[in-house]
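Blinded run. Sample ID left blank on purpose so nobody reads anything into the name before looking at the predicted structure. Input follows.
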Amino acid sequence: MKNNKKSLVEKSKNKQKRSFIKKNLRKKDLRLAQLEDADLSESHLGFTNLDAVEAKNADFSHTHLVRTKLSRSNLQGANFTSSQINRVNFKFADLRKASFAFSHILNTKMRNLKMWGASLRHAILKDVSFMNSDLDFADMRGVRAQGCSFFNTDLREANLQNAKMMGCTFIEANLKRSNLKGADLSNTDLDGAVLIGAEFNENTKLPFSDVKAQLLGMIYKRSE
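Blinded prediction complete.
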């Protein structure tokens, strides 16, 4: 009986720890916290220290993250959908399969990150650097990006269909077998980018001719 009671108390405590819905956590120090599967949706996380947290599959949807620290954190599968993200430190974080769909991400360095299979669908990005990050298989459909850097970024088989990339750089990026159908890349720098197998169509806007695109190994696929 004592063991059962102890187990129930521990479960109750864990449940309480994992519920932060609509909480004001501004400037809190939560370093090394165990937040796996935690619900932090609609919370205020401005200036909060979340370095090295274990937050796999945590829910950060509809949150405000301003100058938040999330370096070296495990954020695999975390949900940042429809969040406001400004000047956040994600240095060395694991963001594989995390979702940033419909989020606004501004002035944030997302360099050297593991973002395999992450979703940025319909996100608005401004002055964000993904330099040296792994974004292969990422869902970036309908992204609106301005002044972003994808220098040496791995975007193999990423889906950028109907994305609008304004003033972005893809220098030495790997876009092999990516989906660029309907994407606007007319005002981007693709110098040294690998484009072999990347698909485009009549609605794709490139900074060079369709002839050059095919010479670079891109594949033209007419819209059905």
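Unblinding after everyone has recorded impressions. Residues 5-17 have pLDDT under 50 and may be disordered.
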